[in-house]
Amino acid sequence: QVQPVESGGGLVQAGGSLRLSCAASGSFFMGWYRQAPGKEREFVVVVTSSGSPIYATSVEGRFTISGDNAKNTVYLQMNNLKPEDTALYYCKVHSKGAILWGQGTQVTVSP
């Protein structure tokens, strides 16, 4: 089992964009989640067993998930970022019967 690795977070002004990456070889990608300070972890986008993404209402139309099978990497393109998108972003994968989470990548959006 290999823990996924997230990257691509950073500080951006409202209205800006970031692209997050989740690298996880030998795993089935399940979704992106985020956790803001003082709040519970929430889903951003999950992928169904048929491969279809389901986006949280708060990000639909602004965030887009994509993948590169050759690189075992899933991306989260985030556009028109808002201060309320500030959180630690995690990816969740399934590997050999286990659910694995990465360490997260911090996204901070300034007003």
Question: Explain this structure to me?
Answer:
With 111 residues, the protein is mostly beta strands. Helix content is 0%, strand content 55%. The protein is built from no helices and 11 strands. It has strands at residues 5-7, 10-13, 18-23, 28-35, 42-47, 53-55, 63-68, 73-78, 87-95, 98-101, 105-110. Strands 2, 4, 5, 6, 9, 10 and 11 form a 7-stranded mixed beta sheet that branches. A 4-stranded antiparallel beta sheet has the order 1-3-8-7, with no helix packed on it. The radius of gyration is 13 Å and the shape is globular.
How would you summarize what this structure contains?
The chain has 111 residues and is an all-beta fold.
N to C succession of SSEs: EEEEEEEEEEE
Structural class: mainly beta
Mean pLDDT: 95
What fraction, in percent, of the residue positions are helical? under 10%
Sheet having the most strands = 7 strands, mixed
The fraction of residues assigned to DSSP E strands is over 45%
Shape by Cα distribution:
globular
Q: Report Rg.
A: 13 Å
Count of separate DSSP helical elements: 0
Report the count of strand segments.
11
Low-confidence stretches: none
Beginning-to-end CA distance, first to last residue: 39 Å
Q: Topology of this protein?
A:
Elements: E1 5-7, E2 10-13, E3 18-23, E4 28-35, E5 42-47, E6 53-55, E7 63-68, E8 73-78, E9 87-95, E10 98-101, E11 105-110
Parallel strand pairs: 2-11
Antiparallel strand pairs: 1-3, 3-8, 4-5, 4-9, 5-6, 7-8, 9-10, 9-11
List keywords for this structure.
11 strands; 111 residues; mainly beta; 7-stranded mixed beta sheet; single chain; 4-stranded antiparallel beta sheet
